[in-house]
Design goal:
The chain folds into two domains: about 160 residues, TPP-binding domain (Rossmann fold, 3-Layer(aba) Sandwich), CATH 3.40.50; about 80 residues, SIR2/SIRT2 'Small Domain' (2-Layer Sandwich). The chain has eleven helices and nine strands. The two termini are about 25 Å apart. Bound molecules: nicotinamide-adenine-dinucleotide. Nicotinamide-adenine-dinucleotide binds next to loops.
């Protein structure tokens, strides 16, 4: 048996033995879909670096530049679809095996793979729409873009508030309700699987450590080492799609190939 197959078997044994599983996902889950992760070499996120929240609030020119970068990135990733990892997690959630998916991703691909809102916890928000920072009203990107391209100025809300992509920027407070749900799910699980995350972005990266401290088993699927590898019950240092492919429903596999 090859190493990858044996590792996937060990993960399957942990999943089948567990009563309550949490999946914690990072940018590595979406690289197979053509969305680069943050830290791998050549990442466009580092050239189109998100603008710090305080600069966004303070400076209209920074806001306009932030929207320009956002729409440039959206054009590149317009047609991305869920990969094997997303579809496997959606299938495990549909089977009732996974109770919560805590994600750092903002790409909306868990939703597109069919994961229901009550299962998904987005720690860093969602880049597929925008919100007013004052009244909280949702703004659709198509309309926001039209206004931006017509005026060259960062859009504002009817209430006068600043409109921002519904993601959490560097320097912006974490969403309270998502953090509360993530903590509750982490403390309730007996298996926590971290998938495609370098586990260096805090506070999100605190959840796998918390699960381990609380007595849950910890599995890590990531092609590079992480700071928590030495504390994990299982480390799969390989490709996410390969490790999780067996959970993708066969009809779904055929559809996406
Ligand atoms: P990261 O870029 O720090 O780490 C991703 C990890 O995934 C890396 O260690 C890499 O080796 C691994 N990886 C990449 N492709 C893989 C594959 N196919 N199989 C196995 N491992 C693979 O990502 P992070 O920990 O999520 O932190 C980055 C931050 O940037 C997050 O806060 C996230 O919000 C944001 N971000 C999101 C997206 C997205 O939504 N898709 C993309 C880039 C950045």
């Amino acid at each position: 048996m090859d190493d990858a197959r044996e590792a996937a078997d060990r993960l399957e044994a942990l999943i089948e033995a567990a009563g309550s599983v949490v999946a914690f996902t990072g940018a590595g889950l979406s690289t197979e879909c053509g969305v680069p992760d943050f830290r791998s070499p050549g990442s466009p996120w580092l050239t189109n670096m998100p603008i710090d929240f305080s600069d966004f609030l303070r400076d209209p020119a920074a806001r306009a530049e932030s929207w320009r970068r956002k729409f440039a990135m959206d054009d590149v990733y317009r047609d991305v679809a869920p990969g094997r990892g997303h579809r496997a997690l959606a299938a495990l959630a549909a089977r009732g095996k996974i109770g919560a998916i805590i994600t750092q991703n903002i790409d909306n691909l868990h939703q597109l793979s069919g994961v229901p809102d009550e299962t998904l916890i987005e720690l860093h928000g969602n880049g597929s729409y925008a919100r007013c920072l004052s009244c909280g009203m949702r703004h659709e990107l198509a309309e926001t873009r039209r206004a931006f391209e017509a005026s060259g100025e960062a859009p504002s809300c009817a209430c006068g508030g600043i409109v921002k992509s519904a993601t959490i920027s560097f320097g912006q407070a974490m969403p309270v309700e998502a953090m509360r749900r993530a903590q509750a799910a982490t403390l309730a699980c007996d298996l926590f699987i971290a998938i495609g995350s370098s586990l260096v972005v805090h506070p999100a990266a605190g959840f796998p450590a918390l699960a381990r401290q609380n007595g849950a088993k910890l599995a890590i699927v990531n092609r590079e080492p992480t700071p928590l590898d030495s504390r994990a019950d299982l480390v799969i240092r390989g490709d996410i799609g390969d490790a999780l492919e067996r959970y993708v429903a066969p009809a779904n596999q055929a559809h996406f190939r």
